[in-house]
Input
Amino acid sequence: MATMQTADAEFQAMLKDLQSLVRIEEQRAQESYDSAQAAFDRVLLAFVAVLALSLLVSGAVTLFMSRAIVRPLRNAVSAARQVARGDLASDLQVSGRDETAELLQAMAEMKQDLRSLVGDVAAGAHAVADTSVQIAQGNLDLSQRTEEQATTLEETASSMEELTATVTQNAHNAQAASQKAVNASNIARRGGDVVAQVVSTMNGISASSGRIADIIGVIDGIAFQTNILALNAAVEAARAGEQGRGFAVVAAEVRNLAQRSATAAKEIKALIGDSVGQVQAGAQLVDTAGRTMQEIVDSVKDVSVLLAEIAAATQEQSSGIGQVNTAVAQMDRVVQQNASLVEEAAAATESMKEQAAALLKLVARFQVGRETEAEPSPASIALRPVLASAGNAAWRQF
Output
């Protein structure tokens, strides 16, 4: 408790000291403010005096300078307004050597340069307008020729398509004919094989007929021997008398049979001989037919080879015509692109013509005088022949 009282007493003492210090600082601040206010009043009075003196001096200087600067500046403003109105014909009079005179001299030179520039622009605009008309005429001629080329290419493409269809059909026909020739060759070859078999069979029949003729000869010999034996038996029966009568009858029958066998053998031999002759004649005919068939087979093979070559040539021709069609199609696309380019060039030329007309309209606002119009700059003089050289002849050649 005693400690708290002691601390409170110390705090009260410090508070009094602090209040005294604050009052001292407030007094010092008031003194500083009063001193600064007095200094400000003195500075303000001096500033007002200097300002009044400056106003008097500036008024005198302004009055003096207005006579030396404002009048030339008015002349410059007047000249600038003339240029703004498009009057470039009048000249600007310059006198003196000061900065204003230099400004007027620069404006005079600018006016002269602008006069030459407007003259050049007018000459160039006229040349561009004339050239645009020539280019437009050239574009019209080129467009007409392009349309004619496009029409011709379309007709050529149509004819080439018809020719392609015809050649393709011929190629198919040649291939079909070649296949038929191959089939005919196979059939003729099989016919030749059959004829060869017939010839072989006829030769076999001829050989068999010869063997039959030999056998019939043997039979004829047997019949002849039998007839001799029958005659001998009849003779012996006659000698035997009554006892050999029956044997004589048998011998007579045997002789009759032998005679009939001999007769039949002769007839068969004659028939076999005729058959052998006919077989030989048939064999010769079949042999001839076989050789003819072989010739037909060879001819059909040759025809098949020729048709195959024709088909191959037709196929190559069809391929070549296809390439020609492709080239014609490419040419047609190029012509169409040229037509589009011509249309774009015509549009650009028309735009250039309109811009030249607009430029001439703008240039017409300026009055450059007769002398400037009569004597354009060397650049415009050199520009006219260059533009005029791009005439109709150049476009037709293009």
In short: Confidence is low (pLDDT under 50) at residues 371-398.
